[in-house]
UniProtKB/TrEMBL annotation:
The Toprim domain, residue ranges: 3-113
Domain of life from the UniProt record: Bacteria
The UniProt record lists the keyword Magnesium: yes
Enzyme class label: isomerase
Region (Interaction with DNA): 165-170
Record SMART domains: TOP1Ac, TOP1Bc, TOPRIM
PANTHER family membership: DNA TOPOISOMERASE (PTHR42785:SF1), DNA TOPOISOMERASE, TYPE IA, CORE (PTHR42785)
Domain Topo IA-type catalytic per the UniProt entry, residue ranges: 129-580
Name of the protein this chain belongs to: DNA topoisomerase 1
Regions crossing the membrane: none
Native organism taxonomy: Bacteria, Pseudomonadati, Bacteroidota, Chitinophagia, Chitinophagales
Family matches, as InterPro entries: Topo_IA, Topo_IA_2, Topo_IA_AS, Topo_IA_cen, Topo_IA_cen_sub1, Topo_IA_cen_sub2, Topo_IA_cen_sub3, Topo_IA_core_domain
Residue numbers marked as site, Interaction with DNA: H33, R139, R140, D143, W155, R292, R481
């Protein structure tokens, strides 16, 4: 048995560290958190100074039992969990559960899993930092209080289903998405005309090339643009002035958690959670430094390696030492940016990790490279028939510098509609130019784009909301709760006008462009909008961006030992709890309804509202003698924006699309999505099949195919009782309606001989004593 036990968070990291430390050390994993707050009664004794009540979850009992045994047999236990607040809290929980003395137990931290870093950590241990523990504990308790007290308010005042919940950071994130959506919906597009002139000139090889010059501002109307073109008929064009300005571009800082998430989204198309999963693997296998950080610092050792790599690969001229400063003064405990642990490795073998690693390597190298040197030429071109000027501009890259390795991506918000500048041919003052064509093209203003996961992280960081460890779980949570969905939006065709001056003749054409198409954007659901409006109305402080950011600063103050954690919780809880009590007493129940008009056939009101299974349109009311008619909204439709015409179109379902094998085929949308009904049986439609337009030729083969598949897995059917005995991937089972019941092991081999009485008995037994569900594996970081 080893003399020293080292406890880390993940098994992958344990293997890597054990190889480094050698035979005197045994390295074990605690698999993340080993304790959490009790579920019952909030798990917090509020009257006793917010004392938390911790338990060891069922799925961690085996891990804790093994750690206790190994710890008992070891001479010394070293706590080596991650170096942030979450990791510090995990070490404290381990000390509590294993009976270790926090005043003497050695705590070691490192931000890279390399031999020098691990050995240095062992040589220089420290003790548990209770300020960091208390900062994490305060966050966990405060978020539990908000969720535990706000969620029942939502159930009582607006729930269509008792699964609504609220969270401190999550609710504010949803608010951002909701407000952006409303901004887009209310945006009034205006058009203007952009003038571009295309000239012919000789390049340095003497070839005739075309280059572009832009007109004097934008014209508000087609008439104004046409007047300008008319003024240019018969004009001569002369170069009036040429300005050559040197310019430079500087590299971006090395990656932090948020900038890595943003750039991996832009360049690789990765979701925030995928980026963090891959980064975690790279860290645990010793390839990169710790991936939860808001620091842009690089260590002296790293700077030396980077300098060597640049000088070797690109030459001395390309190296320029730089120190970057954090925008956030409260940058958390991790003291270095995300970088490769060994700069000489420009790639890794693992195909899953390769692209993200290379992105990190390039960004790190580029951050210490020389500026790119540019030469920008601006030529002013006079028009003989009026006093206006055209402007041609071009860029020449004189020295590529860091651009040899890396160019930072840009968000839609930063792009506008400007084009990349090209290279101009050699021009001289007073040179006369030949006009090939001048165009005035109609262009439209655009609303701010919807958030991507990465641009939402950027916004949260700008507002000071959340910290590196919270971005990914926040975005995952709001989608799981059904408040936000990530999806694509198809573009729509739009006409635009082009006026053209060529050979002194003006022509007008109308062309079409695709506009409004979006990919992998965050859309608020109707439920998300309703919850946001309710919380904004009754819990203004909790939903305020500034207040949420101030809470984060208070956590930082606790971490720095400047504030007591339970005093901070008292300051928050007392007004918050009073707010909850008042809302429960006074707030009206939220209906989430919007009257669209009257049904032209029956004269009954047509309402868009939230139903038990989501947003829908209703004709009539429950007070009517006739039962109201309902239709589910399409995924792309919203209660807030659906028109009367669009609502009535939804009542075209169910559609009878014709006869198949002598029986009608109906298509409709149900609780589980679009389906076809044939011969009293139901068949889910494929994703690409639109129930409003799909035809029999597409649906008939689907019915035949699914029926064959079903026949192959059917063992036995009790028609009267509507009980089926079916083959499944994990063995035979019983199906009644939408419920499945697994057959006991002793009945599986003789499933074909089962009687209806036996089937009923099995179902009753499983209803009375349902099998215990296995708890899902706990995530490394608390959400």
């Amino acid at each position: 048995m080893a003399k020293n036990l080292v406890i880390v968070e993940s098994p992958a990291k344990a293997k890597t560290i054990e190889k480094i430390l050698g035979k005197d050390f045994e390295v074990k994993s605690c698999f993340g958190h080993i304790r959490d707050l009790e579920k019952d009664d909030m798990g917090i004794d509020i009257k006793n100074n917010f004392k938390p009540k911790y338990i060891i979850p069922e799925d961690k009992e085996k891990v804790v039992k093994e750690l206790k045994k190994v710890a008992k047999d070891s001479d010394e236990v070293w706590l080596a969990t991650d170096e942030d607040r979450e990791g510090e809290a995990i070490s404290w929980h381990l000390a509590e559960v294993l009976g270790l003395d926090p005043k003497t137990t050695k705590r070691i931290v490192f931000h890279e899993i390399t031999k020098p870093a691990i050995e240095r950590a062992v040589r220089e241990p420290r003790l548990l930092d209770m300020n960091l523990v208390n900062a994490q504990q305060a966050r966990r308790i405060l978020d539990r209080i908000v969720g535990f007290e706000l969620s029942p308010v939502l159930w009582r005042k607006m729930s269509m289903r008792n699964s609504l919940s609220a969270g401190r950071v999550q609710s504010v994130a949803v608010r951002l998405i909701v407000e952006r959506e409303r901004e887009i919906n209310s945006f009034a597009t205006t058009s203007s005309f952009k003038v571009e002139a295309f000239f012919l000139a000789k390049d340095i090889q003497g070839r005739t090339i075309t280059f572009k010059a832009e007109g004097p501002g934008r014209f508000k109307t087609a008439e104004d643009a046409e007047t300008f073109l008319q003024q240019c008929v018969g004009a001569a064009y002369t170069v009036k002035d040429i300005t050559v300005k040197p310019g430079k571009k500087s590299p971006a800082a090395p990656f932090t958690t948020s900038t890595l998430q943003q750039e991996a989204s832009r360049k690789l198309g990765y979701s925030v959670s995928k980026t963090m999963l891959l980064a975690q693997k790279l860290y645990e296998s010793g390839q990169i430094t710790y991936m939860r950080t808001d620091s842009v610092n690089l260590s002296e050792t790293a700077m030396g390696e980077i300098s060597k790599a640049i000088n070797t690969n690109y030459g001395e001229r390309y190296f320029q030492s730089r120190k970057y400063k954090n925008k956030n003064e409260n940058a958390q405990e991790a003291h270095e940016a995300i970088r490769p642990t060994y700069m000489e490795n420009s790639t890794v073998d693992d195909s899953d990790l390769k692209r993200l690693y290379e992105l990190i390597w390039k960004r790190t190298i580029a951050s210490q490279m020389a500026d790119a040197e540019l030469e920008k030429t601006i030529a002013k071109i006079g028009i003989s028939t009026n006093n206006e000027e055209l402007t041609a501009s071009g860029e020449v890259l004189k020295f590529d510098g860091f651009l040899k390795v890396y160019m930072e991506g840009r968000d839609e918000e930063d792009e506008g509609d400007e084009e990349q500048e090209g290279v101009l041919p050699p021009l001289t003052v007073k040179q006369t130019l030949d006009l090939k064509e001048m165009k005035a093209t109609e262009r439209f203003t655009r609303a701010a784009p919807r958030y991507t996961e990465a641009s939402l992280v950027k916004k949260l960081e700008e507002l000071g909301i959340g910290r590196p460890s919270t971005y990914a779980p926040t975005i995952t949570t709001v989608q799981k709760r059904g408040y936000v969905e990530k999806r694509d939006k198809e573009g729509v065709k739009r006409d635009f006008r082009i006026l053209s001056l060529k050979n002194d003749q003006i022509t007008k054409v109308t062309e079409q462009e695709n506009t409004g198409a979006e990919k992998s954007k965050l859309f608020p659901t109707d439920l998300g909008m309703l919850v946001t409006d309710f919380l904004k109305q009754y819990f203004e402080r909790v939903m305020d961006y500034g207040f949420t950011a101030r809470i984060e600063e208070e956590f930082d103050e606790i971490a720095n030992g400047k504030k007591k954690w339970n005093i901070m919780l008292h300051d928050f809880y007392d007004p918050f709890h009073q707010n909850v009590e008042e809302t429960l007493e006074k707030a009206e129940r939220v209906k989430g309804e919007r009257l669209l008009g009257q049904d032209p056939t029956s004269g009954k009101p047509v309402t868009a509202r939230m139903g038990r299974f989501g947003p829908m349109v209703q004709i009539g009311t429950v007070e009517d003698e006739e039962k109201p008619r309902f239709a589910k909204l399409k995924q792309t439709q919203s209660i807030e924006t659906i028109s009367m015409e669009e609502a009535m179109d939804l009542f075209r379902l169910p559609r009878n699309i014709g006869l198949f094998e002598g029986t009608d085929v109906l298509v409709n949308i149900g609780r589980f999505g679009p389906y076809a009904q044939h011969d009293k049986k139901f068949y889910s439609l494929k994703k690409e099949m639109d129930p409003y337009t799909v035809e029999l030729e597409e649906v008939a083969p689907l019915i035949a195919e699914k029926r064959t598949a079903k026949d192959e897995r059917t063992i036995k059917v009790f028609e009267k009782e509507k009980i089926q005995v079916l083959k499944g991937p994990y063995g035979p089972y019983l199906k009644v309606g939408l419920r499945n019941y697994k057959l006991p092991k002793d009945k599986q081999e003789t499933a074909a001989d089962i009687t209806v009485e036996e089937a009923k008995a099995i179902i009753e037994e499983l209803k009375a004593n349902p099998p215990k569900k296995k708890a899902p594996p706990r995530k490394k970081k608390a959400e």
